[in-house]
Design goal:
The chain is of the alpha+beta class and 560 residues long.
């Protein structure tokens, strides 16, 4: 997806113990200090991973990472996408950490409490933490950072508001080690947001102002060194770091001496850099390279099945002829997605079936009953809608107009052959699909404006509440509701799911939501895209996180 973002979602932990109300405060649910399962409430405690000592070898190294995408900024309050999240995880810490096992672990917060009404979250902060410039991390620093989101002057600052939802009210400093975060309405997914809110030094924010994104100062295991546009970005080990997340495999400073991200946009060059040991870790290469990399005995492929919305087509329901649901249904029935995936990508991709991937909590299996490859049904639907091939040229027409659709997408080496394959299948039922590729900014602007018939998207998320970005009526013409579908039932279900604190009830709400989305035929799921990384076997301890393109390097080192 264009500037795909890991949309920060997922949930609140409801509680094991009800605490007595204090000074009129809403009673709170106690959340365990150790790992808690990311299951949208309630959660059970999981033990913090033990710190295990890595074998007595040279636990260090200079890591070079090949990445096709350069971050837009290193100011976490401003970034539009999560392409920079790997740098953020090196430079900054979050209140809690979302691990590869999909559990939450203590990070800058040692414990946290959530009110039963979902409007107040209390975080009990770790003592002794300092930013890279020596500024203490405390409750006031949390407040400064949260109040700054959405208000700071930066080109894409509005996007960060989604981390706090639309009901953030205030951050209350109780004492240096305690902060209460208040919302005007229940915000069931905030615990996940807390795992992706990164904290900057208030002193550095004051010092650098609008230029802070080029001079980041966090509390993380690495310190910013330099950023050369279109070339590389380097961070070095923070020798004072001693507050790793609860799932870390060691304590104290990171092992790596430094990490350099080299920006390499071309897939074959990325792979060649790894094969030639110019890099030790790469991402963003074409799926067709996976088998080649696996065949190299010196290399290893790492992957995960990330939660979220799969790669699929948004069909613009406000633009004829897709304003007719029969035409939309025909498009879905005409596509043999399974054969396309198998033919082009072998076993490295899977066809998608619904509004969420199968690895996402609350996935609705009933989605698999929609859009089974059935060209005869597609033709019948188009006949019923009045589209006939009156001149025998193979393309249907009605009222003097050809049945022509246009698809607009970013230039993606994986999608180009996929859309060409599906273009041919649509032609077989009499639909003329025109495919256009453009740079991401143009795609975003035109899809927001609603000019293309079809705008593909992929959306990483951990909680289905983030489906609001794609389907809420309020995001038509301003955000990512590129299907331009205004559906009161969808809006109602989105609101109910965001506020509901009970896990079982939330799951039913989101399954109902997925059914409504599929019933409207404004979304055609195409394929599920794993997050692939490749590395030399000398790289140890790197952890791929279940969020498409993110990796954790605190425990990583290079074996001699």
């Amino acid at each position: 997806m264009l500037k795909t973002r890991i949309a920060v979602v997922s949930t609140l932990i409801a509680a094991a113990t009800i605490l007595a109300s204090c000074s009129g405060a809403t009673p709170a649910a106690a959340v365990p200090t150790q790992a808690v399962q990311n299951t949208a409430s309630p959660a059970t405690a999981a033990p913090t991973a033990p710190a295990t000592e890595i074998p007595a070898i040279a636990k260090a190294g200079h890591l070079v990472v090949g990445d096709p995408t350069e971050p837009d900024t290193l100011d976490p309050a401003c970034t539009f996408s999560t392409f920079g999240d790997n740098q953020y995880k090196a430079l900054f810490d979050s209140l809690i950490f979302w691990g590869a096992d999909k559990n939450y672990y203590p990070n800058l917060a040692e414990t946290w409490d959530a009110s039963t009404d979902g409007k107040t979250y209390t975080f009990h902060l770790r003592a002794g933490v300092k930013f890279h410039d020596g500024t203490p991390f405390n409750a006031q620093a949390v407040k400064v950072n949260l109040d700054r989101i959405g208000k700071v002057k930066c080109s894409v600052g509005k996007e960060a508001v989604s981390l706090l939802g639309d009901s953030y009210d205030s951050a209350e400093v109780v004492d240096d080690a305690t902060v209460k975060i208040h919302f005007s309405k229940p915000f069931a997914k905030f615990l996940d947001s807390a795992a992706f809110l990164y904290f900057s030094s208030p002193a550095a924010l004051d010092k650098d102002g609008e230029n802070y994104g080029r001079h980041p100062v966090g509390t993380g295991p690495f310190v910013f060194k330099e950023w050369i546009d279109k070339d590389h970005l380097t961070v070095t080990r923070n020798p004072d770091y001693n507050w790793a997340p609860g799932n870390a495999q060691h304590t104290g400073p990171a092992y790596l001496d430094d990490i350099t991200w080299r920006f390499i946009p071309e897939s074959s060059t990325l792979v060649s850099s790894l094969e030639g040991k110019e890099t030790q870790l790469i991402r963003g290469f074409e799926v067709t390279s996976v088998d080649e990399i696996r065949a190299d005995q010196a290399l290893v492929v790492m992957e995960d099945a990330p939660p979220g919305a799969p790669t699929g087509w948004n069909l613009n329901v406000q633009l004829a002829p897709l304003d007719d649901i029969r035409v939309r249904q025909a498009v879905g029935d005409a596509l043999d997605r399974a054969t396309m995936v198998k033919t082009l990508f072998g076993e490295n991709l899977n066809p998608a079936y619904g509004a969420l991937t199968r690895s996402t909590w609350s996935y609705w299996p009933g989605s698999e009953d929609y859009f089974k490859f059935d060209p005869a049904k597609a033709k019948s639907l188009l006949d019923d809608a009045g589209w006939k091939d009156s001149d025998g040229d193979g393309i249907r027409d009605k009222g003097g107009e050809k049945l022509t659709l246009n698809l607009l997408d970013i230039t993606d080496p994986q999608r180009i052959p996929a859309w060409e394959f599906l273009q041919a299948e649509l032609k077989d039922v009499g639909i003329d699909l025109h495919v256009e590729f453009a740079e991401s900014g143009s795609v975003f602007d035109r899809c927001v404006a609603g000019t293309p018939h079809i705008c593909p998207v992929h959306w990483g998320m951990r909680d289905p509440a983030e489906l609001s970005s794609l389907w809420a009526t309020e995001n038509i013409g301003t955000g990512f509701n590129w299907a331009r579908l205004s559906d009161s039932k969808i809006d109602s279900l989105l609101a109910a799911g965001s506020a509901e604190m009970d896990r079982t009830k939330r799951e039913q709400i989101y399954q109902d939501l997925q059914k409504e989305i599929m019933d409207q035929a404004a979304w055609i799921p195409i394929f599920e895209d794993p997050g692939f990384w490749a590395a030399t076997k000398s790289l140890k301890g790197a952890v791929v996180l279940p969020s498409v393109r993110h990796i954790w390097l605190y425990d990583a080192y290079i074996e001699p």
